């Protein structure tokens, strides 16, 4: 229960009872990180159904779908995405990039990246015309977080400080990685049950992202940080949404 509360307190803005963040509780907190995605996916699906019930379409429906993840997470992953792209755009050495990640100010490249991200996300969500496509994208919120846990534990930390290092260094690696692998397989199995073609498209997009992301993190930053982990979650969600939107229109 303590690990559950810690995970939701860290990675969401949902009200949770106050508990002390001790090492024992943090050992298995990452096991529950994908459940935050399950909550987002459920609300995402409910908003889609609500809009269908009231015949709300177009911009308002799409805007709501884009805002839901930000409201539930408090924008913690988007913050990491913006910091990461600010650092990447600097083309500085690893040490300088890590300093940019810690800078609380937002740069011009982060604003540009945010605008591009939200436009692509809105376009993908607006193109979700079938229930199967919406279900597949909603499942993607769980998939992005379960795969992110594996990334956090498999790619070395870029620095020996920060929240990500605190979570990864204290984690029961064998148990957490086992849980994350099972959660990834389970949610992908659900996506296959929903629609094999959409699942294949989503899985392929995640694989391509993983190959690029690992190289970017190691060569660009010397490892992973909390901001880079948040960036992965955001990019994975976007890749799944775009892949599902495109695959749903293939003449198969």
Structure, described:
The chain is mostly helical and 252 residues long. It has one domain. It is built from 12 helices and no strands. It has helices at 2-11, 23-26, 33-53, 58-73, 76-90, 94-102, 108-126, 131-154, 163-170, 173-194, 196-221, 226-247. Helix 3 runs antiparallel to helix 8. It is globular. The N and C termini lie far apart (46 Å).
Short description:
It is built from 12 helices and no strands.
Structural class: mainly alpha
Order of helices and strands: HHHHHHHHHHHH
Please outline the major beta sheet: none
DSSP helix fraction: over 70%
Rg computed from alpha carbons, rounded to a whole number of angstroms: 18 Å
Overall average residue pLDDT: 91
Shape: globular
Number of domains: 1
Number of helices: 12
Distance between the termini: 46 Å
Uncertain regions: pLDDT < 50 for 5+ in a row?
none
**How much beta, percentage-wise?**
under 5%
The beta-strand count equals: 0
Task: Give the arrangement of secondary structure elements.
Layout lengths: L1 H10 L11 H4 L6 H21 L4 H16 L2 H15 L3 H9 L5 H19 L4 H24 L8 H8 L2 H22 L1 H26 L4 H22 L5
Helix pairs in contact: 3-4, 3-8, 4-7, 5-6, 5-7, 5-12, 7-12, 8-10, 8-11, 8-12, 10-11, 11-12
Task: Please give a handful of descriptors for the protein shown.
single chain; 252 residues; 78% helix; mainly alpha; globular
């Amino acid at each position: 229960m303590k690990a559950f509360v810690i995970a939701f307190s860290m990675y969401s803005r949902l009200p949770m009872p106050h508990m002390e963040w001790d090492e024992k509780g943090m050992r298995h907190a990452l096991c529950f990180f994908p459940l935050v995605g399950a909550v987002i996916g459920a609300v995402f699906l409910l908003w889609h159904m609500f809009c269908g019930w009231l015949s709300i379409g177009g911009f308002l429906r799409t805007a709501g779908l884009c805002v839901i993840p930000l409201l539930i997470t408090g924008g913690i992953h988007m913050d990491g995405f913006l910091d990461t792209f600010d650092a990447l755009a600097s083309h500085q050495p690893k040490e300088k990039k890590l300093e940019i990640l810690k800078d609380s100010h937002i740069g011009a490249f982060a604003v540009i990246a945010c605008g591009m991200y939200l436009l692509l996300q809105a376009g993908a969500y607006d193109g979700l015309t079938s229930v199967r496509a919406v279900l597949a994208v909603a499942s993607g919120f769980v998939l992005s977080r379960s795969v992110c846990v594996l990334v956090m534990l498999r790619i070395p930390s870029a620095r020996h400080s920060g929240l990500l290092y605190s979570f990864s260094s204290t984690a029961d690696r064998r148990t957490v990685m086992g849980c994350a692998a099972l959660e990834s397989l389970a949610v992908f199995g659900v996506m296959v049950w929903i629609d094999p073609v959409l699942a294949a498209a989503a899985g392929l997009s995640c694989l391509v992202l993983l190959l690029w992301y690992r190289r970017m993190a190691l060569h660009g930053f010397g490892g992973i940080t909390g901001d880079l982990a948040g960036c992965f979650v955001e990019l994975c969600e976007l890749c799944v949404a775009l892949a599902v939107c495109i695959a749903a229109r293939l003449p198969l």
